[in-house]
Known about the structure:
The chain is α/β, with parallel strands linked by helices and 204 residues long. It has eight helices and seven strands. It folds into two domains: 3-130, Resolvase, N-terminal catalytic domain (Rossmann fold), CATH 3.40.50.1390; 137-202, no CATH class. The protein has a five-stranded mixed sheet with strand order 2-1-3-4-5, with helices on both faces. A two-stranded antiparallel ribbon has the order 6-7. 22% of the residues are buried.
Amino acid sequence: MAKTGYIFLSKKYDTLEEDRQWMMDYGCDNIIEENGAQEKLRPQWKKLLGNCTANDTIVISRLSNALRGVRELGAFLDLCNQYNLRLICIQDKIDTGGELFTETKAADVLSIIGRLSSEATVLRRREARSLQTGAAAPKTIKAGLRKDREKTVVKMYKSGKSIDDIWKASGYRSRTSVFRVLARNGVELNRGPHQGPIKKRNEE
């Protein structure tokens, strides 16, 4: 029964930090962040769905951040029904488990579904325009993703998460990378066998 968060890094994502923190506080085992340049293919989203098992929980910001229209919504709901998946939409205030956002009514959900296609279209056009900025765009996107991921690592450590939990959520290949990020951001280790300032040899 894994809890997985998914964030599509779209332009003008005003609630990115809020959503990321919400997922960490909720206890997501992994937070997947999809590169905005992958708006059409969404390989990380497809991989997430392909790895789902019975009774898993998927946490997203809103339907339009993960799904590209009502057709994808229909296929996704079929998958949720097949595996008894729980869906939590933070900004849409939807919880199919019925525990959170109890103030949300059926009419609210129908309204959100009604806006899905138009909101997804706006997102697609925004990402398409961002990819027309020239050859320098991929480098800028990569730098932005690295900065966001490092912020997540630092926040998770300061909130008390273990190094192993941070490593799994960050997507780094090794635990050493987590220590390097903490060192680069001036974080002093304060738990278990890892205490005090991180030695300079761990820095990149």
